[in-house]
């Protein structure tokens, strides 16, 4: 995708314009929205790459915007802008499907680091894993969904898909939380807590169990003191030769 459009949903004009300026300087095309309703509409425009979402907003609060957005755009990257100390907001936001959060007040540099990291991991695809089967379900990596038969499907978020791919890239060994943080988040752990990854794994696990219509947690096993690994009912096939580079055009 070539679009550089990033939606900013923020009711404080000075903050919104400062973010827009930062994004513009970095070569992005900011779209500004001053309330939740306008923000949801803007976020749903075709070609939007990422959404920066404040939580306290007029007309519709940020959490409601996120939930509604996720019903139609399950993988569009969303970064929440939260007030310092509002830890519940961060947890709730991540549970509602946000990809990351930035705590106000943030520097332009910090914001851009988060934006680039989220965009990078949404673009990265380990090319060697071609096929993942989880119990009776098949993972469609292109469409980021897990399917069972013709009817049943669960959509995976960008982050969940990346975690699954990373675990699949190392079948038969436990992958530590630190490694997942580094590989999946593209950060050296700074600012992101390990329970963030636990939350995403829990959601992924729940989806894999749901599609198989059981409560089996062993599709992704917790290895105490080590991290996570795929269970025996997950099979992974990798390509013999590297898959041709896709989406390399800029
Ligand atoms: Ca606000």
Question: What would your notes on this structure say?
Answer:
With 250 residues, the chain is an alpha/beta fold. The protein has two domains: 5-121, Rossmann fold (3-Layer(aba) Sandwich); 129-246, Winged helix-like DNA-binding domain superfamily/Winged helix DNA-binding domain (Arc Repressor Mutant, subunit A, Orthogonal Bundle), CATH 1.10.10. The chain is 38% helix and 24% strand. It has eight helices and twelve strands. The protein has a five-stranded parallel β-sheet, with helices on both faces. Strands 9-8-7-6-12 form a five-stranded antiparallel β-sheet, with helices on one face. β8 and β9 (152-155) form a beta hairpin. α6 crosses α7. The radius of gyration is 18 Å and the shape is globular.
| Sequence stretches where pLDDT stays below 50 over 5 or more residues | 240-250
Secondary structure: helix percent: 25-40%
Number of strands: 12
Quaternary structure annotation:
single chain
Q: Please count the helical segments.
A: 8
Q: Would you tell me which CATH topology of the largest domain applies?
A: Arc Repressor Mutant, subunit A
Which CATH-level-2 architecture of the largest domain? Orthogonal Bundle
User: What is the ordering of alpha helices and beta strands?
Assistant: EHEHEHEHEHEEEEHHHEEE
> For the largest beta sheet, what order do the strands appear in spatially?
2-1-3-4-5
Task: Kindly report the name of the CATH homologous superfamily of the largest domain.
Answer: Winged helix-like DNA-binding domain superfamily/Winged helix DNA-binding domain
What kind of sheet is the major sheet? 5 strands, parallel
Q: In whole angstroms, how far apart are the ends?
A: 8 Å
What is the gyration radius calculated from CA atoms? Answer: 18 Å
Return the CATH class of the largest domain.
Mainly Alpha
Number of domains: 2
